[in-house]
Structures are given as structure tokens and as C-alpha cells.
What does this fold into?
Amino acid sequence: MEPWLSNPMEKLYADYFYFHFTNRLTPQGRNGCYICYEMEGIRSPTSVDRGVFENEFYPKPRVHTEVCFLNWFTKLPWAKTLDPGKKYTITWYMSWSPCVDCAEQVAEFLKKHNCVRLRIKFPRLYHGNKPKYQQGLRNLDAAGAELAVMCPEDFKYCWDNFVDNLGWSFWYWKGIRWNYHVLDEKLREILCNPMSSLSPRTYNFHFPNLPFASEWNNTYICFQVEERKNSSPKTYYKGVFRNQPSHLQQGYPEEPLHAEQCFLSWFDDKCLSPPVDYNVTWYMSWSPCLECAEEVVSFLEEHENVSLTISISRLYNCDDEDEQHGLQLLHEAGAQVAMMSPEDFKYCWDTFVDNLGWSFWYWKGIRRNYYALDEKLREILCNPMSSLSPRTYNFHFPNLPFASGWNNTYICFQVEERKNNCLKSYYKGVFRNQPSHLQQGYPEEPLHAEQCFLSWFDDKCLSPRVDYNVTWYMSWSPCLECAEEVVSFLEEHENVSLTISFSRLYNCDDEDQQRGLQLLHEAGAQVAMMCPEDFEYCWDSFVDNRGRSFWYWHGICWNYHVLDEKLREILRFRLP
It folds into this structure.
């Protein structure tokens, strides 16, 4: 099996294959390059031709293996009679990715032979950190070559078809899959193309919803794109993008390219078509920055056929007003923005991670961190939360006689739309008060939970032709200012009836706060204290209780009767 300088070998020796085709990240002494090629349909419609080329070297002038193949191929009698109307597939399994000069020659070859589909797979990147070699790969990609890093299954395929293996089974060396993921991610960055999957190690490092992860500088987007035409699913894409350092971009700009920008560029080039509707879903390790949010908003405004859902693991600089404004812009543009729930993390593990069949591991604090981040996001967006965590409910809602340190107010609400006495729609959720720096207009005063509800209800639900039955279960009774706003709202909207039940009375000995409760009562709102059955109802309806029964705390009935008597006293005696 002596190698020929101009013609292919039939097979490689086993030790040659293991030495030259290893995907070690820093191999030493691998100066040669081999191509294991496979041609389909060249000689005849059903033919499959295989062979191996290597570099030509002393005593002849040095010629790289890619050029050896091209010189040989163009002299084949079959190559001169290829049908331009057909597609002929050639696959190269190379021990190194092509250099700049070879990439240029291969690109020229593909331009002259439009009927040839060339797939190039390699275990290692040749000078993968040098811009000119990266540009060579991009030129190949632009010319139509399909570039990929060899996966473990590709190595086995080469062993079975191109190696004189004497019947031995392929041996998977240590780190073969890990190295594949590292190199595949690197190649995808270079080409600005999505990765097919993440390694478990990358996912478990970058996606956990930790409350403090300031050193995690990379952002990953696991995306799904569903094309719909005439309301039926047409095509489905999925993959992974990550942000790219500036030296990895095609034009070598000074600024790095964010993962969102990578996706938009790819989506615009590869997928987008005006007559098709697209449902796009992103699962992100960090929420978008302001600049990316503005780019996404512009994209959505230009392409009304694209709907976007964004689920994020962590909030990027969530106390910075600019970053909050970016999230608000996305929300106002119609993007559905939410935090990743534990079930979302499991879905990503099953869908976007090369998990080797391992089950998803729920890390400590995953659900508690989700609730904290979800509440923060809802504050930023001024949208209701879907539910409360058991811990939050059990801390903020008990009807304790002394709870002066409980500064947050929560409203668990229900809205029934009725038309002609028939139930039309039903909404429920949770609001809480918002510190001033979290509001959309950045006012000096904080926004109370009641104001959050009224703003949301007025924007999202209210219609003059529908009757509304609104029920609030509140952790604190309304203050005077909020009571006056609610009264004004009820006077303006006679089609709204309001029932308010609260756990505790806010500053119940203060005459101003008593006056607020009296104004609500006189305006027709039904005002009452939450009884033990109300607390259980809220637990069942507004708390993510995971099937656990409500626990009646000590004194719940006694405290209810004391507070109910106090409320009746306030409503009975009208203050001047």
C-alpha cells in the first residue's frame, strides 16, 4: 500500500490514522495532511468511489493534498462529462482544515464546477486563531463548500471505510467528544453559523440561573425557528449562537458581535422570506443589552411576519436603567419576554445539549432563583406575574397583627369579562409594588401594586362594551393615595365592579388611611378582610404550590376576627 504522488491510495495504515486524525487541541508533529475522499455518482449514477490523498513532498515540489485531489479529479474522464443539471457530492475527511491558498483554489474549483457539492470535514483547525486563515474558511463557506468539524461518529466512519484496520473496532480516545464540541464551537464562530448543540459542560457552566454570575461574559442563544405558511408548520430549524470576539468577525470590526446580532444576520441571510410567517424562540443565558434590544426591535418592526419569544436564564445588569429600558422596548414591540423556568432548563438540556442520554440535573436553588428573577422581570415590564412562590406567599400574606417590616404589597387578582351575562374571558395574576428606578418613565415616586394593576388593566383589557368583575386579594390594604386613584377609576368606568379582600390593614389607626377605606366603600367597592378560606383559595389559585396543601398558621382565625372587627369599625364611623 505504497503511496502514489499523483494518484490516491486505497487505505491508510491504522497507526497513521490515529496519529494524523486525532482531534487533540494542541497536537505536536502533525505536519502532513491527508484527505479521505468519497465521491457519489461521479463514475455512474449509483457509484461510490473512495480513496486517500496526502501531500506531495521531496523530491518533487511541495503540493498540498487539496491541490493533489483537484489536479487528479480534473484529469478524470468522468469529470469532463458531468451533467451541469445534476448535483454530484464529494466529501473530504481531512486531517487539517485547508490553508488560505488551498481554500482559494478550492473556491475557484467550485465556481467552475457548479454541479459539484463539496463537504469538507476535519478534526482540527489549521491556525484557527489567525484572521487570514479564518477568512480562508469563510471564503470556502461563501463559495458553497459545507464545512464541519469531524464528530466522533465521523472518525468511526473513516476507520471503517478508509483504514486498513485488520478487523479491529474503532477506539474512541479520551476527550474525543469534548474536543469536538470545542472545535465545532470555534468553527461556528468563524463562519457566523449556528452550532448544532452544546456540550453538557458548556451548558452547565453558562446557563444556571445563579443570582450572582458577573464573571460569565459569554452569551448563548439556543434558538428554534418555525416557518408557517397558510397556518400550517412548514420548516423547523434549531441551533445555538454565542457572542463573538471582534477578531472572529468577517469584517474585523473593533466591537465584538453579540449573539443576538449573529442570529439576526444568519436569519436574514438564510431563512427570511416575506410570504412566510415565522415563530422564533430564544433561550438565552443572559438577557439582551440595550443596543441588542434596539436592534431586535428594529428587526421586528421591519418584519411583521416574525414573532419572537425570549426566555432568559439571568438578567443582565438588571438594576441599570438603560438595560431595563431595553427589556421594556422589546416587550412593547411585541416580543414575549420571560425568565426560564426549571422546565425550560430541562427542555433546553433535552433539545440543545449533546447529553449522551443523561437526565437533566436540577441544581440547588433553581426554582427559588427563577421566582426571584421572574418577579424582578415583571417589575421591570410592569406585567403581572403568573404565580407566587410558596416562600413569598407565606412571608408576605400571613395576617399577623404586627408586620411593620413587610414593605411590599402584593395583589393576587382575578378579572372576569362578561357580555350579556355570559362569561367571555378570565384573567388572573399577581402584581407587586415597584421601586421608582424600575418604572418605565423613571418617576421619583415608587409605583404601588394598585397603580400597576390599573395601568395594565386599562392598557390590556378594558373595553366599554364589556362588564368586568374584578377581585383583589391584597397583602396590605390600600393607602389613601391609591384608594383615591381606584375611586376615580371606578367613577370613570361604571362597567367595572371591584371586590377587595386584604390580609392586613395598613396604618389602620391613621385617619388618612381610614378615610381611604371609607372612600372605597362609598364608591361601591366591596371591602373585606381575608378569611382563612380566602388564604387557602389564594394558595390553590395563585401559588406554585406543586400539589402541597395549604398550611393554616397559628392564630389565622383569631387574627381574622380582630382585623375584621377593626375594619367594620372604620367603615361604620364616617370621618369628617
Summary: Residues 246 and 254 are 6 Å apart (CA to CA).
